[in-house]
Fold this protein.
Amino acid sequence: MQKQHPRGRASMRRHTLTTAIAITLSVGFAGSALAQDAAPAAAADQAQASGPSAQEKAQELDTVTVTANKREENIREVAVAITKLSDQQLENINATQMTDYANYVPGLAIQSNGTPGQTQVSMRGIAAMSPGSTIGTYVDETPVGSNSLYQQATLYTLDLLPYDVESIEVLRGPQGTLYGAGAMGGLIKYTMKKPDVTQAEYRVGFGFSSTDSADDWGTSYRVGVNIPLKQDALALRASYAGNNIAGYIDNLFDGRKDINEGDQTSARAALMWQGDGIDVTFTAMQQKIDSDNNAVVALDPVTHGRIAGLSNYVGVDETFFKDIDNYALTVNWDAGFADFVSATSYSDSHTFTRSDLTFSYGEYPLLFAELDPRLVPGKSNLDYELDLQQFTQEFRLQSKAGTDFEWLVGAFYSKEDGDNHQFIPLYQMDGSPLPAPWDGILGVLGELFIPSTYEETAVFANGAYKFTDSFKLGAGVRWARNDQDFTQNVTRGVILPIGSDANTSSEDVVTWSITPQFQINDDTMVYAKASTGYQPGGPNILAPGLPPTVDSSTLTSYEVGLKSAFADNRVLFDLTGYQIDWNDIQVASLVNGVSGLVNGGEATSRGVEASLLVRPADGLTLGLNAAYNDAKIDEDFQTITVNPAGDIPGIGLVRLDVNTGLEGDRMPYVPELTWAFTADYYYPVSNGWALNVGGGL
């Protein structure tokens, strides 16, 4: 459960499932497994144990390995505020989208339109107020998502259907030195299951769910297979999963029910070759999301009540579709003195969304009603279509783990080619065109094409030296340069002048981090961290009143943390406090009906995060996490002058100064307090088999 302070436009999030059943059958050879779960309230899992005995697993909390520093490390020894969700935890809560597990991560906030993929993510109060994202997303070794200002990355964060996922790591605070641009607030890292060259596995599952206000059941299904093609050398892993989302929004105008139904599918295949000191993995992944409508209503920012009596209803169907194909090639080579990693990826994505603009433009015909009485209020919408092709390449050379001095150096390159198409029609309430000749004059209020490119080159280094058994000092630095260009083509409409313009930008940015950590005893570690991050700027929409370019948004973060264990590893407690100073905030502003960007003022975000895991009895694990955040504007955002051109014929001089943020205001879309409770029960049955039941609030 999450308690938060909604502002302005809020999402109708999925209600608690009143009924949910999921069943999974998994059969493996050279080691078999059988699992059956009921989720989200309960899940059961039987699996043949390996490593620690089932009895030992029931008594102690597991050791968790993470890859926050791009090498495998014990989470208790890493000076990063990090939460790791395992595949078992995701099954226990029947997770099918980001909103299902976000509350289990302190400091992570989600704004959703009710459909997977229409998701805005923020951490520690660093909420994007422009199209550029403040949170990075990685799948295994490669980034996924755009850094361009013209691909709306902040609105369409990758929301991976978490099947065939080994784990999800959420790193809070700036991660720019290792993970690059866009990770100024934090990072979400999906680690996928790797092909197994030793044993075959076959897996199938299905589930049902019932949602409040929905007439139909939601269903889910999944299949997976792992096949060793050559023992100990070559293996293929493949999976397919689908999620049919039940609708619960009704259209009051035409009487249709449950109009926000949707489908989500995910397919993945991975081929791995394992040789002497080297392994090569090629992965192909596709995800599709198709929604008939979103689930958003407008709320008064003061009273939090629905504006103008709006309830769970929409006028124009606000459809959403997203298709992403991702291909990755990863090479890991043991060079003897160090390890070499090459990570190559290519992704191709298409996004389409339709938004109801009737409230904004529906009465536009009334401006000309004196000329023609047939002109009455109508309907309008915005069709937003985004296409992106992205190539990335990273090379890393890193020292062996376990030495007093651990180091890493690397180089990174990324190239994005994007297309942005916006179309705003105006039509009558019944969906028919405006009466002639007005359909040719006002039938299209605007059509805009924006082809753009984003190219980035970076080099980085990271290291940590262990001075004594109790003190280690880590540091990192990254230099990056990005070059961007775009063309603004207005082909039709009355909102923007018809024509074509081009714009470019370039910038060099350096980010750094320094992290001292102290191992007080075997069970307690404290650390401090100072780090910087940035959100790339870029060329701006060319319109009167808007600057030609927008600068990078930068921040400096300071945090202190505690990681501790008690009672023979039966109690784990983490505590983190932080302050983030955010400068040149990028703000989306509407000037004379044109949406563009400006650099706003400054803000400070302060907060505390806590996480507690307790094993009060053998096999029973209770978890509680909470986060408090106070993010406020320190300096007024930049004032925008509406109609700086001056005189309007027949009216005279019209100028209006608009400010979208004032000193002392809370940052929008940032919950003040979040918390979650989880419970899992692990019971060893016999012969290495075990039962696992879990759920959470």
